[in-house]
Amino acid sequence: MPRIAVALLIQAVAVVVLAGLVYLASFWIAPPYNDLLLVGSLSFLTVFLSALLGMASWWLWIQFVFPWSLYLLLLSPLSPWWGLVIALLIVLLFKNAFKEQVPLYLTNAKTRQALAMIGRQNHSRCFIDLGCGFGENVRFMTTVESVVRSVGVETSPLVFWIAKWRSRSYPVEIHPDDLWQVNLAEYDLVYAFLSPKPMATLWLKVQEEMPENGWFVSNSFHVPDVEPDDIWVLNDRRQTHLYLYKIGGKD
Ligand SMILES: C[S@@+](CC[C@H](N)C(=O)[O-])C[C@H]1O[C@@H](n2cnc3c(N)ncnc32)[C@H](O)[C@@H]1O
Protein backbone atom coordinates (compact mmCIF):
# COMPACT_ATOMS: atom_id res chain seq x y z
CA MET A 1 0.00 0.00 0.00
CA PRO A 2 1.43 3.46 -0.89
CA ARG A 3 2.70 5.41 2.12
CA ILE A 4 0.21 8.23 1.50
CA ALA A 5 -2.67 5.74 1.85
CA VAL A 6 -1.17 4.37 5.09
CA ALA A 7 -0.78 7.93 6.40
CA LEU A 8 -4.41 8.80 5.64
CA LEU A 9 -5.61 5.53 7.13
CA ILE A 10 -3.71 6.32 10.33
CA GLN A 11 -5.36 9.76 10.46
CA ALA A 12 -8.77 8.07 10.14
CA VAL A 13 -7.96 5.45 12.80
CA ALA A 14 -6.70 8.20 15.13
CA VAL A 15 -10.01 10.07 14.74
CA VAL A 16 -11.93 6.90 15.65
CA VAL A 17 -9.67 6.23 18.67
CA LEU A 18 -10.05 9.85 19.80
CA ALA A 19 -13.84 9.64 19.42
CA GLY A 20 -13.77 6.54 21.65
CA LEU A 21 -11.63 8.32 24.25
CA VAL A 22 -13.92 11.36 24.21
CA TYR A 23 -16.92 9.08 24.69
CA LEU A 24 -15.24 7.40 27.69
CA ALA A 25 -14.13 10.74 29.13
CA SER A 26 -17.70 12.05 28.98
CA PHE A 27 -18.61 9.69 31.86
CA TRP A 28 -16.26 11.62 34.14
CA ILE A 29 -15.91 15.09 32.69
CA ALA A 30 -18.81 16.80 30.99
CA PRO A 31 -18.14 17.95 27.40
CA PRO A 32 -17.47 20.17 25.47
CA TYR A 33 -13.69 19.83 25.52
CA ASN A 34 -11.08 22.38 24.59
CA ASP A 35 -10.34 22.43 20.81
CA LEU A 36 -6.60 22.67 21.31
CA LEU A 37 -6.65 19.66 23.62
CA LEU A 38 -8.58 17.62 21.04
CA VAL A 39 -6.39 18.62 18.07
CA GLY A 40 -3.23 18.12 20.14
CA SER A 41 -4.42 14.65 21.17
CA LEU A 42 -5.20 13.79 17.54
CA SER A 43 -1.75 14.95 16.48
CA PHE A 44 -0.13 12.93 19.23
CA LEU A 45 -2.15 9.81 18.33
CA THR A 46 -1.29 9.99 14.62
CA VAL A 47 2.41 10.42 15.35
CA PHE A 48 2.32 7.58 17.86
CA LEU A 49 0.56 5.21 15.44
CA SER A 50 2.83 6.24 12.56
CA ALA A 51 5.95 5.61 14.65
CA LEU A 52 4.51 2.28 15.72
CA LEU A 53 4.15 1.30 12.05
CA GLY A 54 7.74 2.32 11.36
CA MET A 55 7.07 5.32 9.13
CA ALA A 56 10.09 7.49 8.31
CA SER A 57 10.70 10.54 10.50
CA TRP A 58 9.66 13.02 7.79
CA TRP A 59 6.28 11.27 7.66
CA LEU A 60 5.93 11.77 11.42
CA TRP A 61 6.26 15.52 10.88
CA ILE A 62 3.60 15.45 8.16
CA GLN A 63 1.32 13.40 10.42
CA PHE A 64 1.85 15.85 13.26
CA VAL A 65 1.15 18.93 11.17
CA PHE A 66 -1.86 17.53 9.27
CA PRO A 67 -4.56 17.80 12.02
CA TRP A 68 -3.33 21.26 12.99
CA SER A 69 -3.42 22.46 9.37
CA LEU A 70 -6.98 21.22 8.94
CA TYR A 71 -8.00 22.87 12.18
CA LEU A 72 -6.41 26.21 11.24
CA LEU A 73 -7.97 26.01 7.78
CA LEU A 74 -11.41 25.44 9.33
CA LEU A 75 -10.92 28.42 11.62
CA SER A 76 -9.65 30.74 8.92
CA PRO A 77 -11.99 32.90 6.86
CA LEU A 78 -10.30 31.59 3.67
CA SER A 79 -12.47 30.01 1.02
CA PRO A 80 -12.24 26.17 1.02
CA TRP A 81 -10.93 26.50 -2.56
CA TRP A 82 -7.62 27.55 -1.05
CA GLY A 83 -7.40 24.13 0.59
CA LEU A 84 -7.78 22.58 -2.83
CA VAL A 85 -5.17 24.89 -4.35
CA ILE A 86 -2.69 24.12 -1.55
CA ALA A 87 -3.32 20.36 -1.89
CA LEU A 88 -2.77 20.62 -5.65
CA LEU A 89 0.48 22.52 -5.16
CA ILE A 90 1.70 19.89 -2.71
CA VAL A 91 0.94 17.11 -5.19
CA LEU A 92 2.65 18.98 -8.04
CA LEU A 93 5.75 19.57 -5.89
CA PHE A 94 5.94 16.29 -4.01
CA LYS A 95 4.37 13.84 -6.45
CA ASN A 96 7.32 11.48 -6.15
CA ALA A 97 7.18 11.43 -2.39
CA PHE A 98 3.83 9.70 -2.73
CA LYS A 99 4.51 7.60 -5.82
CA GLU A 100 8.19 6.65 -5.44
CA GLN A 101 8.79 7.38 -1.77
CA VAL A 102 11.39 9.91 -2.86
CA PRO A 103 10.69 13.31 -1.33
CA LEU A 104 12.08 16.61 -2.59
CA TYR A 105 15.17 17.73 -0.72
CA LEU A 106 18.14 19.36 -2.32
CA THR A 107 21.88 18.76 -2.58
CA ASN A 108 23.81 21.44 -0.73
CA ALA A 109 26.59 23.60 -2.16
CA LYS A 110 29.41 21.66 -0.49
CA THR A 111 28.16 18.39 -1.93
CA ARG A 112 27.88 19.98 -5.36
CA GLN A 113 31.53 21.04 -5.11
CA ALA A 114 32.46 17.47 -4.24
CA LEU A 115 30.44 16.16 -7.17
CA ALA A 116 32.24 18.54 -9.49
CA MET A 117 35.55 17.33 -8.06
CA ILE A 118 34.58 13.74 -8.83
CA GLY A 119 33.76 14.85 -12.38
CA ARG A 120 37.14 16.59 -12.72
CA GLN A 121 39.15 13.70 -11.29
CA ASN A 122 37.56 11.24 -13.69
CA HIS A 123 37.40 13.55 -16.72
CA SER A 124 33.68 12.83 -16.91
CA ARG A 125 32.03 13.89 -20.17
CA CYS A 126 28.34 13.18 -19.76
CA PHE A 127 26.59 13.87 -16.47
CA ILE A 128 23.03 13.09 -15.45
CA ASP A 129 21.14 13.84 -12.25
CA LEU A 130 18.39 11.25 -11.81
CA GLY A 131 15.54 13.24 -10.28
CA CYS A 132 17.19 16.63 -10.71
CA GLY A 133 14.95 18.73 -8.44
CA PHE A 134 15.33 22.38 -9.43
CA GLY A 135 18.33 21.54 -11.65
CA GLU A 136 21.04 23.20 -9.55
CA ASN A 137 23.46 20.25 -9.89
CA VAL A 138 22.89 20.02 -13.62
CA ARG A 139 23.75 23.69 -14.06
CA PHE A 140 26.75 23.50 -11.74
CA MET A 141 28.29 20.56 -13.57
CA THR A 142 28.72 22.75 -16.66
CA THR A 143 31.60 24.35 -14.72
CA VAL A 144 33.53 21.08 -15.00
CA GLU A 145 35.77 21.56 -18.02
CA SER A 146 35.52 17.98 -19.31
CA VAL A 147 31.72 17.82 -19.13
CA VAL A 148 30.20 18.26 -22.59
CA ARG A 149 26.67 17.25 -21.70
CA SER A 150 24.80 17.90 -18.46
CA VAL A 151 21.32 16.46 -18.15
CA GLY A 152 18.57 16.28 -15.54
CA VAL A 153 15.34 14.31 -15.50
CA GLU A 154 12.45 15.11 -13.20
CA THR A 155 8.86 13.88 -13.11
CA SER A 156 7.28 16.13 -10.47
CA PRO A 157 5.52 18.61 -12.79
CA LEU A 158 6.02 21.85 -10.89
CA VAL A 159 9.59 20.95 -9.94
CA PHE A 160 10.37 20.15 -13.59
CA TRP A 161 9.03 23.48 -14.83
CA ILE A 162 10.96 25.41 -12.19
CA ALA A 163 14.15 23.53 -13.15
CA LYS A 164 13.49 24.16 -16.84
CA TRP A 165 12.88 27.87 -16.28
CA ARG A 166 15.89 28.36 -14.02
CA SER A 167 18.12 26.56 -16.51
CA ARG A 168 16.89 28.44 -19.56
CA SER A 169 20.14 30.31 -20.17
CA TYR A 170 22.49 27.40 -19.42
CA PRO A 171 23.83 24.81 -21.87
CA VAL A 172 21.99 21.98 -20.13
CA GLU A 173 19.07 19.64 -20.81
CA ILE A 174 16.18 19.20 -18.40
CA HIS A 175 13.66 16.55 -19.40
CA PRO A 176 10.31 15.61 -17.83
CA ASP A 177 11.34 11.96 -17.97
CA ASP A 178 11.01 9.12 -15.52
CA LEU A 179 14.48 8.07 -14.39
CA TRP A 180 13.56 4.43 -14.95
CA GLN A 181 12.96 5.13 -18.65
CA VAL A 182 16.29 6.89 -19.28
CA ASN A 183 18.98 4.88 -21.02
CA LEU A 184 22.23 5.50 -19.14
CA ALA A 185 24.50 4.13 -21.88
CA GLU A 186 26.14 7.46 -22.65
CA TYR A 187 26.51 8.83 -19.13
CA ASP A 188 29.87 8.28 -17.47
CA LEU A 189 28.84 10.17 -14.33
CA VAL A 190 25.44 9.40 -12.88
CA TYR A 191 24.24 11.11 -9.71
CA ALA A 192 21.27 10.20 -7.55
CA PHE A 193 19.92 11.63 -4.30
CA LEU A 194 16.77 9.59 -3.81
CA SER A 195 15.92 7.36 -0.83
CA PRO A 196 16.85 3.87 0.41
CA LYS A 197 13.86 2.35 -1.39
CA PRO A 198 14.97 2.40 -5.07
CA MET A 199 18.70 1.75 -4.51
CA ALA A 200 18.82 -2.00 -5.15
CA THR A 201 16.79 -1.74 -8.38
CA LEU A 202 18.68 1.35 -9.48
CA TRP A 203 21.96 -0.48 -9.03
CA LEU A 204 20.78 -3.21 -11.44
CA LYS A 205 19.89 -0.55 -14.01
CA VAL A 206 23.15 1.29 -13.55
CA GLN A 207 25.21 -1.87 -13.97
CA GLU A 208 23.23 -2.94 -16.99
CA GLU A 209 23.37 0.36 -18.85
CA MET A 210 26.28 2.57 -17.77
CA PRO A 211 29.55 2.46 -19.72
CA GLU A 212 32.57 0.67 -18.31
CA ASN A 213 34.67 2.83 -15.96
CA GLY A 214 31.78 5.24 -15.44
CA TRP A 215 30.94 6.40 -11.92
CA PHE A 216 27.66 6.14 -10.12
CA VAL A 217 27.46 8.51 -7.16
CA SER A 218 24.70 8.27 -4.60
CA ASN A 219 24.16 10.98 -2.03
CA SER A 220 23.39 9.55 1.44
CA PHE A 221 21.90 6.23 0.36
CA HIS A 222 24.13 3.25 -0.32
CA VAL A 223 23.36 0.26 -2.49
CA PRO A 224 22.44 -2.59 -0.14
CA ASP A 225 25.01 -5.41 0.03
CA VAL A 226 27.39 -3.73 -2.44
CA GLU A 227 30.76 -2.40 -1.29
CA PRO A 228 31.27 1.12 -2.70
CA ASP A 229 34.62 1.85 -4.38
CA ASP A 230 34.90 4.95 -2.27
CA ILE A 231 32.95 6.88 0.35
CA TRP A 232 33.40 10.61 0.70
CA VAL A 233 32.32 12.03 4.02
CA LEU A 234 31.87 15.76 3.64
CA ASN A 235 32.56 18.38 6.21
CA ASP A 236 29.09 19.90 6.11
CA ARG A 237 26.42 20.20 8.77
CA ARG A 238 24.84 16.86 7.97
CA GLN A 239 28.15 15.05 7.36
CA THR A 240 26.95 14.07 3.89
CA HIS A 241 28.11 10.67 2.70
CA LEU A 242 28.72 10.25 -1.01
CA TYR A 243 28.87 6.61 -2.08
CA LEU A 244 30.98 6.13 -5.21
CA TYR A 245 30.64 3.03 -7.38
CA LYS A 246 32.90 2.41 -10.34
CA ILE A 247 31.15 0.54 -13.10
CA GLY A 248 33.02 -2.61 -14.00
CA GLY A 249 31.25 -3.15 -17.33
CA LYS A 250 29.14 -6.08 -18.31
CA ASP A 251 30.56 -9.62 -17.95
C1 LIG B 1 15.85 14.15 -3.03
S1 LIG B 1 15.39 15.03 -4.45
C2 LIG B 1 16.98 15.42 -5.14
C3 LIG B 1 16.93 16.57 -6.09
C4 LIG B 1 18.26 16.89 -6.78
N1 LIG B 1 18.78 15.72 -7.44
C5 LIG B 1 19.26 17.35 -5.76
O1 LIG B 1 20.11 16.53 -5.41
O2 LIG B 1 19.23 18.53 -5.35
C6 LIG B 1 14.83 13.68 -5.48
C7 LIG B 1 14.14 14.15 -6.73
O3 LIG B 1 13.89 13.00 -7.54
C8 LIG B 1 12.64 13.17 -8.18
N2 LIG B 1 12.19 11.83 -8.60
C9 LIG B 1 11.80 10.81 -7.81
N3 LIG B 1 11.48 9.73 -8.53
C10 LIG B 1 11.67 10.08 -9.83
C11 LIG B 1 11.51 9.39 -11.06
N4 LIG B 1 11.07 8.12 -11.11
N5 LIG B 1 11.84 10.02 -12.20
C12 LIG B 1 12.28 11.30 -12.17
N6 LIG B 1 12.43 12.02 -11.04
C13 LIG B 1 12.13 11.42 -9.89
C14 LIG B 1 11.79 13.81 -7.09
O4 LIG B 1 10.67 14.47 -7.64
C15 LIG B 1 12.78 14.79 -6.48
O5 LIG B 1 12.76 16.03 -7.14
From TrEMBL:
Keywords: Membrane, Methyltransferase, S-adenosyl-L-methionine, Transferase, Transmembrane, Transmembrane helix. The chain crosses the membrane at residues 6-29, 36-62, 68-94. This is Class I SAM-dependent methyltransferase. It comes from Thiomicrorhabdus heinhorstiae.
